[in-house]
Specification:
- The chain is an alpha+beta fold.
- The chain has two domains: 131 residues, Jelly Rolls; 75 residues, Winged helix-like DNA-binding domain superfamily/Winged helix DNA-binding domain (Arc Repressor Mutant, subunit A).
- The chain has eight helices and eleven strands.
- The strands form three sheets. It has a four-stranded antiparallel β-sheet.
- β10 and β11 form a beta hairpin.
- α1 crosses α2, α5 packs across α8 and α6 packs across α7.
- The chain is elongated.
- The mean pLDDT is 85.
């Protein structure tokens, strides 16, 4: 199925402020790349040759500890940028990226993008704002790991997901095994804590569908 590059760019925070002519110019630099589920897109330490925008599927950004334990930093969904910082530095990719499902990504080669950016500097300011927002999320991740226990991290995740969805009943946006990695815990521990929230009637749980029954109680747990 053919990818409508322009429509996907308009969904991305970096390009949403641009007019149709500007979008068309940036579209010319895009290379559409497809990855099967489980395929590694790039590795930590690999030379950064450009950045990506997720068009279809899901991409996880993660790091590995010295012991080989995986820590998920971010889940890239359609419209999200991946490795945007690569276009502003001569450094290598700072983490790993892997397709969580069959995915289609828009790839911007670094050199071609920077050449176009010189003629359209407006997008540079947008990108700086987006990178600052991403940095804030990474700080939140570090705060979660250092200041909250598993129940607190899970509660905060559920509250944030409910806010993103705009409703109190929603589906988890990833497999429970991936959520366990994101929350830096074991799948068994995650399951125990979900059951604990259910037993206390703070949430109801039906497979991947969550309903928040007591938002205030969940908020108190998320505060640690």
């Amino acid at each position: 199925m053919e990818i409508d590059i322009a429509s996907h760019l308009k969904r991305n925070i970096l390009f949403s402020c641009l007019n149709s002519f500007q979008i068309s110019r940036f579209s010319c630099a895009v290379i559409v790349k497809r990855y099967k589920r489980g395929t590694l897109i790039f590795s930590e330490g690999e030379p950064a040759s450009g950045f990506y925008i997720v068009a279809e599927g899901k991409v996880k950004i993660y790091k590995l500890s010295a012991q080989g334990k995986e820590y998920i930093l971010h889940i890239g969904l359609p419209g999200d940028s991946v490795a945007g910082v690569a276009v502003f530095s001569n450094q290598n990719y700072p983490a790993y990226a892997q397709a969580m499902s069959n995915s289609a990504l828009l790839f911007f080669p670094k050199t071609a993008f920077l050449e176009t950016l010189k003629e359209e500097p407006e997008i540079g300011m947008r990108m700086l704002g987006a990178l600052a927002s991403r940095q804030r999320r990474f700080v939140d991740t570090i705060e979660d790991l250092s200041l909250r226990d598993v129940l607190g991290r899970l509660s905060r995740y559920l509250l944030n997901l409910a806010q993103e969805k705009g409703k109190l009943t929603f589906e988890l946006d990833m497999q429970k095994s991936d959520l366990a990695l994101k929350l830096a815990t074991a799948p068994e521990t995650l399951s125990r804590n979900l059951k604990k929230l259910k037993a206390k009637k703070i949430i109801s749980l039906n497979s991947k569908t969550i309903t928040i029954l007591d938002k205030e109680a969940l908020r108190k747990l998320s505060a640690g």
